[in-house]
Amino acid sequence: xxxxxxxFNPTEVEAGRYEKWLEADVFKPSGNPDxxxxxxxxxxxxVTGKLHLGHAWDTTLQDIIIRQKRMQGFDTLWLPGMDHAxxxxxxxxxxxxxxxxxxxxxxxxxxxxxxxWEWKDEYAxxxxxxxxxxxxxxxxxxxxxxxxxGLSQAVRKVFVQxxxxxxxxxxxxxxxxxxxAMTALSDIEVIHKEIDGAFYHITYQIEGSDEFxxxxxxxxxxxxGDTAVIVNEKDERYKHLVGKxxxxxxxxxxIPILTDDHADMEKGTGVVKITPAHDxxxxxxxxxxxxxxxxxxxxxxxxxxxxxKYEGLDRFEARKQIVADLKELGQLVDIKPVRHEVGHSERxxxxxxxxxxxxxxxKMDELAKNAIANQTTEDAVEFYPPRFNDTFMQxxxxxxxxxxxxxxxxxxxxxxxxxxxxxxxxxEEAPEGEGWTQxxxxxxxxxxxxxxxxxxxxxxxxxxxxxxxxxxxSTLVTGxxxxxxxxxxxxxxxxxxxxxxxxxxxxxHGLIRDEEGRKMSKSLGNGIDPMDVIEKYGADALRWFxxxxxxxxxxxxxxxxxMDAAWNFINKIWNVSRYILMNAEDVSADAVSSALxxxxxxxxxxxxxxxxxxxxxxxxxxxxxxxxxxxFGVAGHILYNFIWDEFANWYLxxxxxxxxxxxxxxxxxxxxxxxxxxxxxxxxxxPIMPFFTEEIFEKLPNTSGSIVVAEYPKVRPExxxxxxxxxxxxxxxxITAVRNxxxxxxxxxxKAVPMLIKSEHADFLNAVSPYISRxxxxxxxxxxxxxxxxxxxxxxxxTGAELYLPLAGLINIExxxxxxxxxxxxxxxxxxxxxxxxxxxxxxxxxxxxVVQKEKDKLAxxxxxxxxxxxxxxxxxxx
Length: 879
What we know:
By secondary structure, the chain is of the alpha/beta class. 46% of the residues lie in helices and 17% in strands. The protein contains 29 helices and 29 strands. The strands form 9 sheets. Strands 7, 8, 9, 10, 11, 12 and 13 form a 7-stranded mixed β-sheet that branches. It has a 4-stranded antiparallel β-sheet with strand order 6-5-14-16. Strands 27-26-29-28 form a 4-stranded mixed β-sheet, with helices on both faces. It is elongated, with a radius of gyration of 36 Å. It starts with 9 loop residues before the first helix and ends with a helix.
């Protein structure tokens, strides 16, 4: 007997299941040349630690997509891989070595890289184990890593081609510098945080005079690198000073007073110090006036030889000393507290230092122009939700040149070589001959990640089978926080090197926050480890929560209450499955097929069988439609309502009238329908919750093989029966109304009461009267198209019928009138809403005809209910 345990146990269900899937090779492409290809490349996690909830969200949504497409017959490829994450990984390994008192410099580049590779192997294994617990259906035979030789070849080719076009260049510019990681950062690797600071008001003496000018700065230590002060040429206060010099306090260096529009007469004192090597605006001023640029800081954030007596001090310690010295000299006028935004390193968290440095850059103007133009073509990338296309376009329209060199050892070493003669060679391979030294810097991690969709497919070999078959990829799923880091760069690099967009669709999700809506962080201690959640609730429950938590682009709040609800839902399906398997364990596939044909032809089965098959068709159609739009939350809501309410709470209960009856032929039909609906429910749920659906699916008496490659449900028009659907909907509404009335007058179901039903559908209701009797327990049941309405009766108006329960002595006429007046107000509100919608000319003109008709049908139904309730109130008042 194919029994399920009495209670759903995720640990037992999920144990070993993933390994069985891998052994069966069910995740590999079908290889069917006639099937439409559908491909996804996984957003590569970096190898710095465990998966977090955000990545679990990425992988869950992508796995839902790929599992559904696989079941729908697409030739699916989901390619896995990982990212080397230069800054973060090097920092992690350096920190581990520091625990043993070892510095990277003690080992040297090659031996240090050996340690990083050991780290990579360790954490890559951890990530793959966690992927297994999540159940993601990737093809591991195609797994890639951003430092694979194939991907490294692609990186070198891209670098050299962009260099030869003049789009990669080496130059001295002001960049963002991370003093802890001691490397350059791109603009988007800088996070601006609001912190407490101060404006330090300092006086500079005019050379040869007792006059002083006052400047205000939040970074007094940078005056060590000042090369000018500026005023606005229209500022009458300082016209007499233009052309003169000021003397920098303490270090006594003389610098000129110049005019420049950057000086704002309305802001501060109107006098601005210019520190070109440490401020982006000052850098631009210096370029206009050909000013010298003095770097006053070492790589580690300490003051260098240009800092005089402050040489060797940390930048913030130097600030304290300088402020104290200025105060002693009498040139510190004031310190005013201020709350301001300061750039911090996205990787190390330290305050970023704007710093003049020689780096490698990508010239972005042409690449950005191509990406912008592409969004107006048929090859445009479709963003879900569409508003993120605006986010992408705005960034591309305002993008700066991209600093791509990093002062690290872990990463793709820049393919440039230098010799003692001062010559530079750039190429995919090292130059021939002696005396060449390769550039010590590596490329920004995102440079290689930007090539991910096509480099993983075999590019630059454009004849690679995977590249020809699966590129461009179909869909990318990622968070909105890396649109700039990764999505944008993949788009412009792919357009440049393949002539195509890298993917057709980008599904953007939000961030996972805690129950209070706060972003999860180590500092708050509110992070959630997805593996801990899986250990308690199972992967299926976590996946259900992640897929149903929000709409595309929206943040979601993690909640253990929601996890409890997910577990309860799975347990409900588990119990339903146990009931069906216990009652239909021997039904063959042929028996099911034969029974379904008879039901469709109306030669067997009852109205409830035809109703549930009609509702199943509607569910399949709507779920598939929402999944195609990546509205997983809406799809999940539809599935939940069908499974919990219509299938479990109603159809299963209604079948008991047959299952506890005497007619074996009817029982056989009902068993077949139960099995079929359960089978289809499991298939609909499988992409979202793969583990327990496989567990139940393999126990069904008429299935074989893995649900992973089972056919996804399709609408079967022969099952549609509108009359059955409307009839059972009326039956359910009637039963619900009786239960509500009983509850209002505290009359339990065990107590039989008389019941009268007035309806134009009396013939149908008489035909289903056994169901009415089973679920409402009438002492007498009268159903007629016309009947005398009792004076003292509780009443309810449902679609197509009026219900009366003569409960003399149990009701208060005034209370009944009050109740009906509330119901009348409810129907009036519904009428107002529908009338407003139908009165909207734009809605009527633009909506589909069936949508408009549906609203008109609702209007007629609500009007009938309104009129009936109104008439009943009048009758009660007359009596």
